């Protein structure tokens, strides 16, 4: 992406790129990252994403979303491997004071509130409606600048469809996730959770609500088939 002016998502979709290359990128990504039983053929990927692109290009003109889309290379906190990440960039990010540790609301001394918008440099796509981001700028950071434009678009489309194949399905999935989040909070309040102690002194313990435990079980059961 050598253009001085960052393109919008619509501009990438309607800018003359070879979409077959985009779909091939997505297909290879899926075949590396999902369970063997769910790996799609190229034709399945082509058919699914052709419909996604059609829906996106039919969206009416919109104001740019408050956060630009950014494609970057991040590092997995668990396996320490780099991966391509698509998220929103917070243009008003403020780094917390040096030495402070993250905390929720009302942080004690030596911590900062990591839930405030200003202290989050990146935000997940989540279930943001497609119609809100169709005319939003696409930025590329760091190592991701080495990716071809077709790969940039492929990564964005892959992330957008994580929660559904249509905008309607994405919004519905978001509501479902919000409900499960409320269920998890209820589990914690009622003591229905397990705790994993910190690996080292001064670390944080992990609390896993009953609702989330069942989600893990379902994923493991599906991956083993």
Question: C-alpha Rg, in Å?
Answer: 20 Å
Percent strand: 15-25%
Q: How many helical elements?
A: 7
Please count the beta strands (DSSP E, at least 2 residues each).
8
SSE string: HHHEEEEEHEHHEEH
Averaged pLDDT: 90
- The end-to-end distance, rounded to whole angstroms, is 40 Å
Helix content: 25-40%
Morphology call:
globular
Instruction: Note the main sheet.
Output: 4 strands, mixed
Please, could you describe this protein's structure?
This protein has 7 helices and 8 strands; from the N terminus they run H-H-H-E-E-E-E-E-H-E-H-H-E-E-H. By secondary structure, it is an alpha/beta fold. The protein has a domain at 9-164. The strands form 3 sheets. Strands 5-2-1-6 form a 4-stranded mixed sheet. Strands 3-4 form a two-stranded parallel ribbon. A two-stranded antiparallel sheet has the order 7-8. A hairpin with a 6-residue loop joins strand 1 and strand 2. It starts with 8 loop residues before the first helix and ends with a helix.
Which key phrases capture this entry?
alpha/beta; 225 residues; two-stranded parallel sheet
């Amino acid at each position: 992406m050598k253009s001085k002016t960052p393109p919008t998502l619509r501009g990438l979709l309607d800018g003359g790129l070879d979409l077959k290359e985009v779909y091939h990128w997505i297909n290879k990504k899926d075949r590396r990252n999902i369970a063997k039983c769910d790996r799609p053929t190229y034709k399945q990927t082509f058919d699914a994403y052709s419909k996604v692109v059609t829906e996106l290009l039919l969206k009416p003109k919109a104001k740019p979303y408050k956060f630009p889309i950014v494609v970057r290379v991040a590092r997995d906190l668990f396996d320490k491997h780099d991966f391509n990440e698509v998220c929103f960039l917070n243009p008003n990010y403020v780094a917390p004071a040096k030495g402070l540790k993250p905390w929720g609301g009302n942080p004690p001394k030596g911590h900062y509130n990591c839930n405030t918008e200003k202290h989050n440099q990146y935000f997940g796509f989540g279930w943001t409606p497609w119609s809100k981001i169709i005319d939003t700028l696409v930025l590329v950071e760091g190592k991701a600048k080495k990716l071809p434009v077709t790969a940039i678009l492929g990564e964005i489309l892959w992330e957008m469809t994580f929660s559904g194949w249509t905008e309607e399905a994405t919004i519905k999935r978001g509501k479902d996730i919000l409900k499960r989040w409320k269920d998890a909070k209820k589990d914690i309040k009622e003591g229905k959770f397990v705790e994993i102690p910190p690996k080292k002194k001064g670390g944080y313990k992990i609390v896993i609500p009953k609702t989330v435990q069942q989600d893990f079980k379902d994923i493991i059961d599906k991956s083993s088939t």
